[in-house]
Design brief:
Elements lengths: L17 H30 L2 H9 L6 H29 L2
Helix pairs in contact: 1-3
């Protein structure tokens, strides 16, 4: 089962609410990391069924599924790191 990100539905606090923004970004980073983990699980599952992956490629799929999973893992991980930096800025502004 894959996680359902809740942070996307959470309203963003006012940008002057540094505690609220820091918490929002912290939650968003956690959500992105969970998406990366979920995608890694999906990649493993596809790896267990190479015939399915090959069949998908044979019916006009434009994407190499395992490679697509790897790209998403990388993107989610990078985005989480960027969001962490934004959270740090707001944490610092709280002091």
């Amino acid at each position: 089962a894959f996680a359902t990100p809740a942070s996307a539905a959470d309203p963003m606090p006012a940008i002057t609410d540094h505690a609220g923004m820091a918490a929002w970004y912290d939650k968003e980073a956690a959500s992105l990391r969970q998406k990366a983990k979920d995608m890694a699980v999906m990649q493993v599952e596809y790896g267990k069924n190479p015939a399915f992956v090959q069949a998908m490629a044979g019916v006009g799929a434009k994407t190499n599924i395992p490679q697509h999973c790897e790209q998403l893992i990388s993107s989610y991980t990078k985005a989480a790191g960027e969001v962490d930096q934004l959270a740090k800025v707001h944490h610092a502004m709280m002091k």
